[in-house]
Amino acid sequence: MNITLNQILILAAGIFSIGLLGALTRKSVIIVVMCIELMFNAVNINMLAFAYFSGLPAIRGQVFAIFIMVVSAAEMGLTMAIAILMYRNKGTVEVNKANLMKW
Amino acid sequence: MTNALFWIVSIIILVACWRVVTTRNLLHSVLAAFIVLISTAIIYFMLNAEFLGIAQILIYAGAVTILLLFVVMLTTTGPRFETGFENKVSPLMYLTSLLLFALLVFIISNINWPFTATIIKMKNVTEVLAGRIFLEYLLPFEVASVLLLAALVGAVVLARKE
Q: Which domains does chain A have, with CATH numbers?
């Protein structure tokens, strides 16, 4: 018995929801960014699942997954640089301490 | 067979995701994320995407996890790698996430996808993918490489000492 599309979509929905929960509730910038990466992964799983189950020989879903991977890697590097900068200026990486631009 | 493997991998992924979100230790959180990324690569392999699976292991499980571990080491003071939660609005956040998951499951299970039942298992996925990227999507590919270069330079400029 093979896997179906709905199983994979529900798995990706679970990963996305848990990642959203972490991005909303955690204090450390590092874990927030990591949860955003989990949400990117859920989206990538959806792309590959649709490319696989569409029954077409064209695999444009995989091309889009590659571009998502590139953009998330760039975002990851920049965010870690910002985290180090924030640690140097504020002495912490907790998001509730980052209130410099709060009015 | 495939179904059993899929169930085992998805249970591992969801438990490790939950550990990422709930554990207070930063290092344990990063290691749980490592497990999630490796298991996601197994899902990619099952979905006939060999190149994406290899790239996932190389980029995410290799580079991104090491980067996260370095930042954890550099930005944590004291002997224990512990951090807290937002304390005011957490029940609302749990409710939001649960509602999102329920909505997604409801939508997914109520849609009839217009796909044919036959699934084509391609033998030369990486070859076809390379053709797609370097012929049809050449301009987005170049833009993505410029984006990576800009992000690299930006990260160096931001994190450099004055």
A: 5-97 (1.10.287.3510)
How close, in Å, is residue A26 to chain B by CA atoms? 5
Distances (CA, A) of B11 to A11, B16, B24: 9, 8, 21
Measured between beta carbons, the chain A residues lying within 8 angstroms of B2 are 1-3
Choose the closest CB to B104 out of A13, A77, A87. Answer: A13
What distance in Å separates the CA atoms of residue B10 and residue B28, rounded to the nearest whole number?
20
**pLDDT tens, residue by residue, B119-157:** 777 778 888 889 888 998 999 999 999 999 999 999 999
**Residue to substitute from A30, A33, A84, A93, interface B, most B β-carbons within 10 A:** A30
pLDDT of residue B3: 85
pLDDT tens digits for range B91-128: 888 899 999 999 999 999 898 887 766 777 777 888 88
In the structure encoding, which two tokens stand for residue B131, read together? 């053709």
